[in-house]
Amino acid sequence: CRRQPQELSRMQAAAAPADGTARPALLLQLDVIPGLDTDRILALGADARLNHYANARWPDHLPEVLASVLRRALESSGRFGSVEVAATGAPDAWTLALELREFYGIQDAGGMTSSVRADLGGHLACGGETHALSVSESVPVAEERLATVVAAHQAALDSVTRQLLERVQALCAAAEDSRT
Q: CA 28, CA 120: separation in Å to the nearest integer?
């Protein structure tokens, strides 16, 4: 019996322009729902079970991979002077607390992947106010190949990252305007 090699997949941060002005520090806190804290690429079956794709892994556990991607995207936005992933930080830092609620392929009763879903929810504490955030995306999967499923994961992550950056930018701008 020959063993198939495992395929590692890397997620990339969506880039956003920076304007170089001084910005507040941001503390990023990321949690995941039970079942998603794994290095396996997952699918939600028709029976509501989380299954993994054979020989398909992220380069690290999903929370660490996504925290890295989101940290880099937030840093490159130019909105923050620094972005730190930690449970606690500087008292004057703004806080973005997120929970990953969905990040998996959706399979039908025959085990075919029809789409990939990504969903993040949480809150942004900035300027003395706390704002609820929720972003989600569903990306269709055209064919049942691992490369296609991984590409759909990347597209879903790119979309929720863009949505998150837009929402954070708008909330930060409103907080800064209210202080002036």
A: 13
